[in-house]
Write a structure and sequence with these properties.
heterodimer, A: alpha+beta, 11-stranded mixed β-sheet, 4-stranded antiparallel β-sheet, 17 helices, globular, B: mainly alpha, about 80% helix
C-alpha cells in the first residue's frame, strides 16, 4: 500500500514531462495524399438527397450526387447529367442527357432514372424540399433514351434552375430508402454521427480529370470560433462560414486566404393577422425607421451592405437604383406613416429572434433601438432556435428577425420569402396581405421573354415596397477561409454562395 | 454491510432514474418546437404542412403523450432507449459509441488532477506559510474562479492558434493514430482536471495539516522514525480518507463539466449528440443521454458510499 502510493506520487511529479515528446508533428500527411480536410459548420442531420437539411448537408450531398445541371463559377447554369435544355414549341422543357454518365454502382444514368427521381420528389408522401415545384410537372415523357421532356401544368420559366438546387438530385432507380445511389464525383466512404464525414474520389466520374482531390474529410466544428481556430492551427485546410469577427484575422494571416460573397440577407418579418402590423403603413414605418449601417457594423463587423429594398443583387438586370432604396432610413417619414395609421403616440409590441445565433440577436437589438426612436417599443424575445422556428410558423409573434438566402439569383428565387400565400413558415411573414407582389411573382414565373421579365420584376418590387411582405435590413458576407495551398475553389456569387460546395470537385492543393 | 442495505440503495437508484427519465420526457414535450418541422425547415423556409404531418406520423409524434410515454417506459424496461428522431439511429448505439470517450476524458482529467493536486497539497502542507504554499494556494484560487470554457478557450488560443504545437480540437480513434489521439486528449483533459485538481489540492493540504497536528505524529517523530516514514505512513495515510471521498463525489460533477469541455475542444463524446438532440428536439436521444449520465452519477455516489461503508462499518449500519 505504502509502496504503491509512493510510486504514485513519483509518477505524479513525472507526468507533466512525460507528455512532451507527443508535441509538434506536421499535419501535412493528408495533404500529400490529396485529401482535403474541411471544417463543416453543422453535421448533416441526414444525407437524404431530396430533403432539405441545411447548407452543410448540401455541400456533402452535391459532391456525392449529381443533377441535370449545376452552377458554373460565374453563377450560370451549366450542364451536368444533361448537356442541353430548351423549350419546345408546346412550352415543355426538353433535356438531352449526357452520354457516358454512370452511377456509383456502375449502371449508366438513363432517362428512366431521371423520371423515377422526379416522381419520387413529387410523390404524395414525399418530404422533398422541391416537392411543390415538381408537383406542377404534369407529365414526364421519354421520347428517346437520351431525352427527357417535362410538360408543366402552367408555364415555368425557371424550371431548369430547379435542378440546380442542392436538394434535387438524379438517383439510380435501384436506390433504396436507406441506400442512395448517386452519380457524383465522390463516393461516401464513412461517417461518424455528429463528428465527421469522409468521401473519396469516384474513378468513373464523367468529367475527365475531375475530381482533382483524392478525397475530402469533413470535420464538424459547430462552434464558429473553434472552426476558425482549427483553420488557424492547421487542423483543417478549409472552413465554411468564417465568423465575421475572424474575417480580418484570416486576411491578415500570411498562410490563409478568404473568399467572400454577399448573398444571404437579414430581414424583418411581420404577423399580419392582427393590428398593428396588418396595416402596410405600419410595416413601411418600420422599414424607414432602421439605420442599416449600424447592423452591418455591429452584427457583421462591416462585412456586409445595407439593404433598403428587396434583396435583389446590384449588377443584375433586375436591380434598379431607386427601387433598391425604396425603404431608405428616414425616421421622420416613419413617424409620419405611424401618425397616418393612427399610431402617432407609438405602441408596444414584441420582436422575436434567437439568442442561439449572435447575428440574429445583434440585429434584433439594433432594430429594437431604432424602432424605439420612432415610438415603437419592442420587447425582445430570444428563445433557442427550435422555439423560434415553432413560434414563427405558428404565427406566435408580432415582428421577427430572420436571416435567409434566396433560392437562386433569379428574382423568382425570392418567392419562398415573399409569397405570403404559401403555407406558414418561420422564414416568411405570417398572413401579411401582399396580393400585387404575389401576382407579379406568378407573372414573372410564366414569362419567358427576358426583357418582359425585367419589367415584371420591377413592377413586383414597386408592389412589395408598398405592401411590405418583409423589410430588408442587410446583405451579409458569406466567407470561406482556406490555406493558401488550396486552389481551384470559387465562392459562387450572391444567393448561390451556399451552393459553392460543388466547386470542391475542381479544388486541389497547388 | 448487508445485502438488504445494498438492495435498498439499488432500489433508490432505480427509482431516481425513473424519476429523471419521466421529468426529462415530460419537460421536453412541453417545450415548444416540433422535431418534424425542424428536420424539414433547415433550408431557412419550411416545406408544406403536408410533408410535416407526414413526417410527424412516421415519427409517431401524432400519438397522445400518454401513449408515447407508455411506449417509452416499456421500451426502457426492455433496455431499449428508442431511436433518434433526427437520423433514425438507435439511441443505445449512439451512447455506446460516445460514452467511452466521455469516460476517457474524465479518467484522463482525474488522473491529471490526482497527480497534480495531491502531491502539491502534500508539499504545500509541509511548506505551510512558505513560498510554494502561498504560490500554490494563489494558483488554485485562480483556477477555481476561472470557468472551464474560458480556460479551454485560452488553451486553444495559446497552444493551437499561437504556438501551433497542439491541435485545436477533434478526435482520432486510438487504434488509428495513438500519438494524435493522445495529443487531442491532453488539452481537454487539462481543462477537465482544472477544477478537480484545485479541490484535491485544498482538501489534501487541509487534511495533511490536520493530521500533522495529531499526537501520534509527535509520538512517531519522538520514536525517531525518519521524516519520510512519518509523512507517508502516518500522516498521508490518514489524510487521504477524506480526499478519496471528495474525489468520488467530484467525479460525478465532472460528468456535467465535460459537456462544456467537449464542446470547446470538439471532442465527440456525449455532449455533441446531446446538444444536437436538444436543438433538434430529438426526444429519445435527449432522454437516453440524460438518463445515462444520471444513472452513472447515481452509481458513482453509490460506489462512494460503498467504499465509505467498507472503510467505516458504522456508515452501513446507520
Amino acid at each position: 500500500m505504502t509502496i504503491s502510493r509512493r510510486t504514485m506520487l513519483a509518477a505524479g511529479l513525472a507526468a507533466p514531462f512525460a507528455s512532451l515528446p507527443l508535441l509538434s508533428r506536421p499535419a501535412s500527411a493528408r495533404r500529400a495524399a490529396g485529401i482535403l480536410r474541411y471544417g463543416l459548420s453543422a453535421f448533416p442531420p441526414n444525407l437524404q438527397p431530396w430533403v432539405s437539411t441545411g447548407a452543410s448537408a448540401g455541400t456533402v450531398k452535391m459532391l456525392i450526387h449529381r443533377s441535370l445541371v449545376s452552377y458554373s463559377p460565374n453563377g450560370e447554369l451549366r450542364g451536368e447529367l444533361a448537356t442541353s435544355w430548351s423549350l419546345d414549341g408546346d412550352g415543355a422543357w426538353v433535356f438531352k442527357l449526357r452520354p457516358g454518365c454512370v452511377f456509383h454502382n456502375g449502371d449508366p444514368v438513363t432517362a428512366e432514372d431521371v423520371k423515377w427521381s422526379i416522381e419520387q420528389i413529387a410523390g404524395e408522401k414525399s418530404t422533398a424540399y422541391m416537392r411543390s415545384q415538381f408537383q406542377s410537372v404534369e407529365r414526364i415523357e421519354i421520347p428517346d433514351p437520351g431525352t427527357i421532356r417535362l410538360v408543366t401544368k402552367t408555364p415555368q420559366a425557371t424550371l431548369p434552375s430547379w435542378f440546380g438546387n442542392y436538394n434535387t438530385f438524379i438517383l439510380s432507380r435501384k436506390s433504396t430508402p436507406t441506400e442512395f445511389i448517386g452519380a457524383g464525383p465522390f463516393r461516401l466512404v464513412g461517417q461518424e454521427r455528429g463528428s465527421s464525414v469522409e468521401i473519396t474520389a469516384f474513378d468513373k466520374f464523367y468529367k475527365p480529370g475531375i475530381p482533382k482531390l483524392k478525397g475530402i474529410k469533413f470535420v464538424v466544428y459547430a462552434d464558429e470560433n473553434l472552426r476558425f481556430a482549427a483553420l488557424q492551427s492547421g487542423d483543417v485546410d478549409m472552413i465554411e462560414y468564417v465568423p465575421w469577427q475572424s474575417m480580418a484575422a484570416v486576411e491578415a494571416d500570411p498562410r490563409l486566404k478568404l473568399d467572400t460573397q454577399q448573398g444571404p440577407f437579414m430581414d424583418v418579418l411581420f404577423n399580419g393577422s392582427k393590428p398593428p402590423f396588418n396595416d402596410p403603413r405600419v410595416r413601411r414605418a418600420v422599414a424607414h425607421a432602421v439605420r442599416r449601417e449600424d447592423i452591418v457594423k455591429v452584427a457583421f463587423f462591416g462585412r456586409g451592405k445595407p439593404l433598403e429594398g428587396l434583396p435583389i443583387a446590384e449588377g443584375t438586370p433586375w436591380w434598379d437604383k431607386d427601387l433598391a432604396h425604396g425603404w431608405n432610413y428616414d425616421p421622420a417619414r416613419a413617424k409620419a406613416l405611424l401618425t397616418e395609421a393612427g399610431f402617432g403616440n407609438g405602441f408596444q409590441t414584441t420582436l422575436l429572434a434567437t439568442a442561439q445565433f449572435g447575428m440574429h440577436k445583434d440585429t434584433a437589438e439594433i432594430v429594437q433601438q431604432h424602432l424605439a426612436a420612432v415610438g415603437i417599443q419592442c420587447e425582445l424575445q430570444l428563445p433557442d432556435w427550435s422555439t423560434r422556428v415553432a413560434r414563427g410558423s405558428k404565427g406566435q409573434y408580432d415582428m421577427a428577425i430572420h436571416g435567409v438566402s434566396s433560392d437562386n439569383n433569379d428574382p423568382d428565387g425570392l418567392t419562398v420569402v415573399l409569397d405570403t400565400s404559401l403555407s406558414p413558415s418561420h422564414g416568411r411573414s405570417f398572413r401579411v396581405d401582399a396580393p400585387r407582389t404575389i401576382a407579379a411573382l406568378a407573372k414573372g414565373r410564366a414569362e419567358f421573354d427576358q426583357a418582359k421579365r425585367v419589367e415584371i420584376y420591377k413592377e413586383m418590387q414597386r408592389a412589395a415596397l408598398e405592401e411590405v411582405p418583409l423589410v430588408g435590413l442587410a446583405w451579409r458576407s458569406q466567407g470561406y477561409g482556406m490555406d493558401k495551398s488550396v486552389v481551384g475553389f470559387t465562392n459562387l456569387p450572391g444567393a448561390l454562395s451556399n451552393s459553392s460546395g460543388n466547386m470542391l470537385e475542381e479544388t486541389y492543393f497547388g | 454491510m448487508s445485502a438488504t442495505w445494498l438492495a435498498r440503495k439499488l432500489t433508490v437508484v432505480a427509482g431516481l432514474a425513473w424519476l429523471v427519465a419521466t421529468i426529462v420526457f415530460l419537460a421536453l414535450h412541453m417545450v415548444p418546437g416540433d422535431p418534424a418541422e425542424l428536420l424539414l425547415s433547415t433550408g431557412g423556409v419550411s416545406p408544406d404542412p403536408a410533408s410535416v404531418a407526414e413526417l410527424r406520423e412516421k415519427l409517431g409524434l401524432e400519438r397522445p403523450l400518454l401513449v408515447q410515454y407508455a411506449a417509452f417506459i416499456s421500451g426502457l424496461l426492455r433496455g431499449d432507449l428508442g431511436t433518434s428522431l433526427i437520423d433514425d439511429y438507435p439511441v443505445i448505439s449512439e451512447i455506446a459509441l460516445r460514452l467511452p470517450r466521455t469516460l476517457e476524458l474524465i479518467a484522463a482529467g482525474s488522473v491529471i488532477a490526482i497527480l497534480v493536486g495531491v502531491p502539491a497539497g502534500v508539499f504545500a502542507a509541509l511548506d505551510r506559510g512558505g513560498a510554494f504554499d502561498r504560490a500554490a494556494s494563489g494558483v488554485t484560487a485562480l483556477l477555481l474562479a476561472v470557468p472551464v470554457f474560458v480556460l479551454g478557450t485560452l488553451l486553444v488560443l495559446l497552444f493551437a492558434q499561437t504556438l501551433r504545437i497542439m491541435p485545436a480540437g477533434g478526435f482520432v480513434p486510438f487504434a488509428q493514430d495513438p500519438v494524435q489521439h493522445l495529443k487531442l486528449l491532453i488539452l481537454p483533459a487539462i481543462a477537465i482536471a482544472k477544477g478537480l485538481a484545485a479541490v484535491l489540492f485544498r482538501m489534501t493540504r487541509a487534511a495533511m495539516l490536520d493530521a500533522l497536528a495529531n499526537d501520534y505524529v509527535r509520538t512517531a517523530r519522538a520514536k525517531g522514525l525518519s521524516p519520510t516514514r512519518v509523512i507517508v505512513v502516518h500522516v498521508l495515510r490518514n489524510a487521504l480518507n477524506p480526499v478519496v471521498t471528495v474525489l468520488g463525489l467530484q467525479m460525478g460533477t465532472l460528468l456535467g463539466g465535460t459537456v462544456l469541455v467537449e464542446y470547446v475542444f470538439n471532442w465527440p463524446g456525449m455532449s455533441t449528440p446531446l446538444l444536437r438532440a436538444v436543438e433538434g428536439r430529438d426526444y429519445p436521444m435527449v432522454v437516453g443521454i440524460v438518463l445515462t449520465i444520471s444513472v452513472l452519477f447515481l452509481l458513482l455516489n453509490l460506489v462512494v458510499e460503498l467504499v465509505h461503508a467498507l472503510l467505516d462499518p458504522r456508515v452501513a449500519h446507520s
